[in-house]
Amino acid sequence: MAAKNETAVVNRLEPAEHATLALNEAAIDASRRNLAQGAMTPHYGPWKKDVIQLLNDSLATELVCVLRYKRHHFTAQGLASPKIAEEFLVHANEESGHADRLARRIVQLGGEPDFSPDSLSQRSHAAYDDSPDLKAMIKANLVAERVAIETYSQIISLIGDKDSTTRRLLEDILSDEQEHAEELKGWLASD
To answer: Which fold has domain 46-189?
Structure first.
């Protein structure tokens, strides 16, 4: 055992091949051209189409969630329903805001947001629900929020450092979805 006042000697190992951190000057030069692409610089590379597809599927999910929450807002009945119905409307409006932000980001990336009603339910990660019972409505919304949480978490991991702006947007939306899930869980527990 070494005495307390002795200093441990640590040998620093240098990697056999040390890669120098350097900027890609060709990409920087290319960003001086193609001004019509706005913020879309060469860094976005081959993932842009994949990111747009992931965002369009997330957009479909948010739109289906808006429709589900709106239906539940208007059809919720029972003793506790007025307060919960109002919260369903708050959630619908927040999901609509998420959809708007996703659509705006898709356009920024040079894509087209897909609002086609014909394919919304097929592209959505979450299901629509027309349950007549308040408890079933809460459960369906909790399931949808959990699906959104898992989906956004996976997309954030997939994107990583490929598109930091989209990643931050999705992290912000994920935080809202987590709050929704905790609120819904609380309503189920209090029933």
So the answer is: Ferritin (1.20.1260)
Secondary structure (DSSP) of 109-167: TT------TTTHHHH-SS-----SSHHHHHHHHHHHHHHHHHHHHHHHHHHTTS-HHHH
| Beta-carbon count within 10 A of 132 CB | 9
Contact in structure between 126 and 139 (CB atoms under 8 Å): no
Distance of CA 70 to the CA centre of its chain: 21
pTM for this model (two decimals): 0.82
Backbone angles phi, psi at 15, to 5 degrees: -65, 150
From residue 170, alpha-carbon distances to 75, 89, 176 in Å are 30, 22, 10
Domain map of the chain by residue range?
Answer: 46-189
pLDDT digits (tens, 9 = 90+) for 30-72: 778 877 777 766 777 778 999 999 999 999 999 999 999 999 9
pLDDT tens across 110-136, in order?
Answer: 999 999 999 999 999 999 999 999 999
| Contact criterion met (CB below 8 Å) for 44 and 111 | no
